[in-house]
């Protein structure tokens, strides 16, 4: 069980802070069921209720500060996603996002970044789907790194660039 004040990754909601554990007054039929009240990282006015005993949506503690620094330091060694069939590209992207795993998110970001470079070399733009998955993965990764490092999400790119000794895009 998670504790009040802890940051967790909760499925597609991403990083959230546990603010309360208990029954939800608006759910009359589940008066005895416990829920986590979660506030998404960096958002105000948004609340998520997650059943404590549910296994449907993955929920885990965020990585530690040390793990975040190790992840950043090892980013260059993380490979791209293996997409062998073009028509399975979006499915591969979705599966990488569903894992809620930082290394999978990095692989997804690198894959789309490489695709963007290849398409630009051909005089083409990135597809709308690629752009959407890129933003979603980047947001999820940067929020988790920001929470672990106790900084704002906007500062994560800067930290990565400094640690890797170059410019990141």
Structure commentary:
- This protein has 169 residues and is α+β, with helices and mostly antiparallel strands.
- The protein is built from five helices and five strands, in the order βββββααααα.
- A five-stranded antiparallel beta sheet has the order 4-3-2-1-5.
- A hairpin with a 7-residue loop joins strand 3 and strand 4.
- Helix 2 (89-98) runs parallel beside helix 4 (128-149) and helix 3 (102-121) packs antiparallel against helix 4.
- It is globular.
How are the SSEs placed, and which strands pair?
Blueprint lengths: L6 E4 L4 E8 L12 E6 L7 E4 L7 E3 L3 H9 L15 H10 L3 H20 L6 H22 L6 H9 L5
Antiparallel strand pairs: 1-2, 1-5, 2-3, 3-4
Helix pairs in contact: 2-4, 3-4
Question: What Rg, in angstroms, do the CA atoms define?
Answer: 18 Å
End-to-end separation in angstroms reads: 37 Å
Main sheet overview: 5 strands, antiparallel
Helix and strand content put the structural class at alpha+beta
Give the number of DSSP strands: 5
**Poorly predicted tracts of residues:** none
Number of helices: 5
Task: Bin the strand percentage.
Answer: 5-15%
**Strand/helix succession:** EEEEEHHHHH
Query: How do the strands line up in the largest sheet?
Result: 4-3-2-1-5
Q: How would the global form be characterised? A: globular
Q: Helix fraction?
A: 40-55%
Mean pLDDT: 92
């Amino acid at each position: 069980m998670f504790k009040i004040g802890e940051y967790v990754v909760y499925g597609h909601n991403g990083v959230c802070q546990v603010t309360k554990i208990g029954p939800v007054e608006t759910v009359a039929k589940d008066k005895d069921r416990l829920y986590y009240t979660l506030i998404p990282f960096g958002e105000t006015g948004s609340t998520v209720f997650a059943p404590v005993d549910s296994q449907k949506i993955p929920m885990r503690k965020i990585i530690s500060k040390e793990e975040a620094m190790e992840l950043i330091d090892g980013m260059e060694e993380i490979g791209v996603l293996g997409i062998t069939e073009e028509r399975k590209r979006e499915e591969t992207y979705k599966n990488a996002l569903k894992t809620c795993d930082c290394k999978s998110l990095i692989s997804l970001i690198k894959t789309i970044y490489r695709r963007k470079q290849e398409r630009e070399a051909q005089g083409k733009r990135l597809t709308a789907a690629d752009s959407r998955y890129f933003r979603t993965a980047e947001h999820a990764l940067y929020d988790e790194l920001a929470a672990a490092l106790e900084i704002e999400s906007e500062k994560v790119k800067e930290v990565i660039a400094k640690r890797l000794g170059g410019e990141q895009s």
